[in-house]
Every structure is written in C-alpha cells, then in structure tokens.
C-alpha cells in the first residue's frame, strides 16, 4: 500500500473509534516510516482528527515536536533493551500530560528489540491502558517476534521507487483513485529526466490498450520532458488532464 493508503486507513479507524492499540508498519525506506509516523501522530491528536493539517492547537504541537503525550523509543546502538521498554511502560501508565487523553509510543526500530524487551512489551500489549497506542517501525518484519505480530495489525508501504514503477499510473487510473494519482505525480516530479521518461514510456504502452487519448497526452509529455530542463509544469498539466478524464 502507499503512504496515503495507510494514512486513510488510520483516519477511518480513528473516526470509527476502531483504531487498533498496536500497529506495525514495514518499509525498506526510513523516510517513509518517519513521514507516516508523523502524520499518524498528527491525525491521532488533532482536535478534529483531520487527515489534513487544520492548524489546531495539537497539530501545532505535533509540527513543533512539542507533543508531551508522544514517547519515542530509539535503539541504543543496534538494540532496544528491556529497561528502555520498562521506562516507556511506566510513563504511559501515568495520566496524559496534556488535555488530549490519547497517548502514543513509537518504536523506531522494532527489529532491534531484544527478546527480553519484546517480552516486556508483550505483557503491555496484552493489557494496554485505555487510549494508549503503539506504532512499531521495521524494515524487516521477519525479525519481529511472532507473539508481537499476533497482537498487532501489520501494514507494509511501498518504496517511493515502487510507487512509479511499472503500470502504476494505469492501475491508479482504472481504480479512479485520485489520491494515489496525486501521490504518483508528486513523486514523479522529484525524479530525474531519465526516470520520468522511463515511467511515462511504460505507461504510454499500457494506456494504448484502453485509452488512446491519454496515451497521446503521455507521448506529448514525453516529448516536452525530453526538450526542456524544467518539466514540472508538463507533469502537472498531464495530471490535471488525466484527473478530468475520470
């Protein structure tokens, strides 16, 4: 799933008051994990639980890294020790530091949990305090203890390179998923010219099978990207045309 898919899932769970107390997020890119964690935190603590930053007091606290109801668990070298987890549990057992009663702890490298630390965490996950949520990052889900995984919901996000690989543009178009189309083009705009042309050429061939007009727009965009150093506007125009075609 994409980052937006994950955040939309979290958003829906919060609105329906069905957010699971423990979530494992796997990605091979630390940047994606950090971005998802930040937005997860902001949506959870936002006064209206808005999926977009509505500049409420809690959104400001999160954006300024001043959320006192967040506890981040970092590795000591390449391991997370039992004492570290015990300190987290002790803190989370206290009353919320701010008026928002939610509490969140993020374990940045779940694969670094020592067995003793994982077992201490397991006891906490079995009987979590009310309105206390755990988000575990990992680059390798196979290194997380099965007992931790069995008590968590597991999500895997695609790398940013995978987002524009293959016929993803066609796939998002046929699903009429505007959010994924937006994310696709936002990521495409960060790529070098060769990568952009490669991605567009692949999708040109894919669209030839189902929508000749879009395939023509894509080939026009390929020609413009090849000619000009600044091609962001070309990609934006292509995005708007495809959105209108839905």
From TrEMBL:
GO biological-process terms attached to the record: DNA-templated DNA replication
Origin superkingdom: Bacteria
Gene3D superfamilies named among the record's database cross-references: P-loop containing nucleotide triphosphate hydrolases
InterPro entries from the UniProt entry: DNA_Rep/Repair_Clamp_Loader (IPR050238), P-loop_NTPase (IPR027417)
Name by which UniProt lists this protein: DNA polymerase III subunit delta
Native organism: Spiroplasma corruscae
Phylogenetic placement of the source organism: Bacteria, Bacillati, Mycoplasmatota, Mollicutes, Entomoplasmatales
Gene: holB
């Amino acid at each position: 799933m994409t980052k937006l898919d994950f955040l939309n899932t979290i958003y829906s769970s919060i609105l329906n008051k069905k957010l699971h107390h423990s979530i494992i997020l796997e990605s091979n890119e630390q940047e994606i994990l950090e971005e998802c964690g930040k937005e997860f935190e902001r949506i959870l603590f936002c006064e209206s639980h808005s999926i977009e930053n509505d500049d409420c007091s809690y959104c400001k606290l999160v954006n300024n890294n001043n959320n006192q109801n967040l506890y981040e668990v970092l590795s000591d070298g390449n391991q997370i020790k039992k004492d570290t987890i015990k300190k987290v549990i002790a803190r989370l057992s206290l009353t919320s530091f701010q008026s928002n009663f939610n509490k969140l702890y993020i374990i940045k490298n779940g694969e670094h949990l020592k067995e003793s630390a994982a077992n201490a965490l397991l006891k906490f996950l079995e009987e979590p305090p009310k309105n206390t949520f755990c988000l575990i990052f990992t680059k390798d889900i196979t290194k997380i203890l099965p007992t931790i995984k069995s008590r968590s919901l597991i999500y895997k996000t695609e790398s940013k390179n995978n987002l524009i690989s293959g016929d993803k543009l066609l796939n998002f178009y046929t699903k009429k998923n505007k959010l994924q189309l937006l994310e696709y083009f936002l990521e495409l705009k960060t790529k070098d010219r060769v990568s952009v042309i490669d991605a567009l050429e692949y999708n040109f061939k894919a669209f030839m099978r189902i929508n000749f007009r879009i395939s023509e727009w894509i080939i026009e965009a390929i020609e413009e990207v090849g000619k000009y150093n600044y091609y962001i506007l070309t990609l934006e125009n292509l995005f708007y045309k495809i959105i209108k075609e839905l």
